């Protein structure tokens, strides 16, 4: 019998293909739809020109991001890089700040962008920090620098810009009638498309993203390929920021906010694979145009007619309907998750090609492999740590624990505060005030310990805190609900966010950092949407009791404690602190002494081996993600009660604090290990560091924005300690080298 072979058909085109044609058609239909609902804006040539101009800056960054994603990496720092470069240029160039020339300012910005790209690349490749952790931390650090350097104020330099027409003409309309940024974008897009599709750089990028190990065996310097991609990404963000500086002749603290979401969504919509190994620059540029157009359609709204009654007479007036505050952010978050889902369920299964083959009556093309993960990392060396702890004795047994560092740091930091300001630190109410700040972080950390131990990550916990608090505040203030209903609805909102995280991560098999990154923006947008971007306050005191001291609660119910030690403690200990410790004790017992806790660590240590052992790893990960969201929701409800108000920025930077707490407390960023004592000690370390940095010592205290930069650096250091000290066991290796190098007699008598 003759054997038959199946042809894989032609190789996919490298520069442009059917996906780009479909995107172009989608763009045309979307623009026509915008012109139909809002002809006053989208029906004019100026609107098309504005769309291309705004697409240019996003598209330039998308060109660099395409190289990163095709490498199977991710760069979450491009938005903050864009904002930081624009702010640095403004401070260098503005006559009321440093008053440098335009050439010196631009050169310094290019050097700064190069440094940021190198730092990202070295962290991810040489130091082996997971890409989403390294670049997320750089995002927060960069955002902290932006806010600190601007002091929350805009910086303008329009008067001085007139002295440098050559540079600032880059952001203006040329003699041909279109903005120069469009021409620069087209040039960058053409060069990027050619390099990725037709040169050795592109071949190395696709090989590294498709299978890094095989690429290394083929002689490709995969580490340099990945560093190079981060350099390109950062330099593209730098160029885009300089073009913005040339156009706006000023900068605001909001530059680049959520741009990382827009750029990643653009590249994925453009056909790049979050699993690596595939992507086209032309598709990414068209994806950028689609995202910018959708954003404009949502922000511009559509014209409506309102009826206004004046002196008893009804008058029809023209108005415009726009979406509430936060709605656009919600949509962009949904767009990111949807775009990533296109990869495994449409592209890799070749749904369109199979449908077209079915219409023509031809055999369907073979589907691509649908397995794989976005980011892989070394497994935690939990067994090694356990062996060291078991073989040690006395003090060495404690020091061998992974959470010993956090416990020691907690004691050292508390004693440092006592030495710096004994008048403040030794005061009992002030001590418990620090404990109140600790409570919110500790609650979030409890749930996140399970997620990280299970091998996942949750970047949305701070936003879920805001969502639950916003929901409770909305029901209390706007709907006039009772406290019990407000608490129930807040918990329901947080649980719903956790359910979406779990379903998308476990059910649709998306990387947890992508699913929770999307929820980060969705929950934050919904929190602002519910309260219309405003701060709410003023509800029944019965709800506020959740954040009050024990003695305040007793007095509310007409109970009075007699003077003494019990009353003194009741006057400083809060209900939320007692609740937090109760939750932590239960969660700690479950994690350390029950089968479910062992399953969590087993799933995080080696998910395949755990599945072979009969553990339902999907259920374990699902419950862990739900628990993290529930803990964040509880923290949000307590936040509203403690402050007696809700602010849409509640929970900001809390995901950074919580991840750092777990890692400092001995948890492994790669999963497989975690203790509740260690995580709580890690949360205490972060809380004490914030308290020390804000402490007024001889008239000096560090501004809040610089504190966030400092915490970001601490997270990077904590991850490096986890990778190189705990897992690679560097100290033991060095000790072994010195032992081998020493003479035999010295080893015997030492």
TrEMBL record:
Record keywords, A-Z: Cell membrane, Hydrolase, Membrane, Transmembrane, Transmembrane helix
Subcellular location: Cell membrane
Enzyme class: hydrolase
InterPro entries (UniProt xref): ABC_transp_permease
Membrane topology: Multi-pass membrane protein
Any GO CC annotation of this UniProt entry: plasma membrane
Protein name as catalogued: Sugar ABC transporter permease
One annotated GO molecular function: hydrolase activity
EC code(s) of this entry: 3.6.3.17
Keyword Acetylation: no
Transmembrane segments: 21-41, 100-124, 131-156, 176-197, 229-247, 318-342, 404-420, 432-452, 459-480, 486-506, 513-533, 577-596, 622-642, 662-693, 705-725
